[in-house]
Amino acid sequence: MPPLRLFADAFEHVIDAYHWHIFETQQVGFHLPFGLSKYIILEMIAAGLILAIFIPLSRRAKSGEAPRGFFWNTFESLLTFIRDKVAKPTIGEHDADRFVPFLWTTFLFVLFCNLLGMLPFMGSPTASIAVTGALAVVAFFAIHGSAAAKMGTGKYIKAYLPHIDAPLGLGPPIAFLIFGIEIMGNFIKAFVLAVRLFANMFAGHLVLAFILFFIVMAKHTDWFLFWPVTAGSVLMVTGLSLLELFVAFLQAYIFTFLTALFLGTALHPHH
């Protein structure tokens, strides 16, 4: 298989598409109806799994029943970790509980989207810049909308305009320059949120796809080349998949932590 064709086929496995192909060619698969894309379906699956897991657990927790079993304790521990180790240290004890549901939802959605890419024939919607960009936009409006609602829009904007005593009347120009830098910084933070998550998930899955395509490249060679390449590729993919599993949790945590950190900074601009 020519290298360019190999790259194209590997690339097709980690990008969004309206044809859900299963093997290395698009001859085996199916077209998605109603203008839906593969990642839209996977996002709906991720949301459905979250609802299916946490609605029953929330009802049991609301009844006052003590957590029992590995399943319940595992998912409750995840949420407790986000509340105690992410929300409260970055937002503060008094404001954290109001934003914990938003951070929980963000963490779980990103995590489930990441983990879907670990399943055969699936994919990670977070490997698309459109998906991570949309998540970053939601985080941007949640961060600054919450701060504006708490302090008032005028007061919140004024918090970015410092009072500077400078000779020769340079105080106001410097203050407006700092104001512009701060505003631009907010957009850069949202951009970083989107690109960091996208780059990590996309690159990881692309590497896995390339390694698997070594088997395809070697299928027309002699057996003494095919079997070592196949065995080596499988072992490498297995090892890297374990790393990708760790990365799936890590990137969900980082996205949520940065969102909480930016939210705490916006809510408490003078701290």
Sequence of strands across the biggest β-sheet: 1-2
In round numbers, the mean pLDDT is 80
> Roughly how many Å apart are the termini?
58 Å
Query: What is the total number of structural domains?
Result: 1
Strands, total number: 2
Uncertain runs: none
| Strand residue content | under 5%
How many H/I helical runs?
A: 8
Q: What class would the helix/strand composition place it in?
A: mainly alpha
The shape is globular
State Rg. 23 Å
> What's the helix-strand series?
HEEHHHHHHH
Helix content: over 70%
Biggest sheet statistics: 2 strands, antiparallel
List the helices and strands and how they pair.
Layout: H1 3-12, E1 19-21, E2 29-31, H2 38-62, H3 69-91, H4 93-116, H5 129-151, H6 153-158, H7 171-218, H8 223-267
Antiparallel strand pairs: 1-2
Helix pairs in contact: 1-7, 2-4, 3-4, 3-8, 4-8, 5-7, 5-8, 7-8
What report would you give on this structure?
The termini are far apart. The chain is globular. Helix 1 crosses helix 7, helix 2 packs across helix 4 and helix 3 crosses helix 4. The protein contains 8 helices and 2 strands; from the N terminus they run H-E-E-H-H-H-H-H-H-H. Helix content is 75%, strand content 2%. It has a two-stranded antiparallel sheet. The mean pLDDT is 80. With 271 residues, the protein is mostly helical. The chain has one domain.
Supply the key terms.
271 residues; mainly alpha; globular
Offer a concise description of the structure:
The protein is mostly helical. It contains 8 helices and 2 strands; from the N terminus they run H-E-E-H-H-H-H-H-H-H.
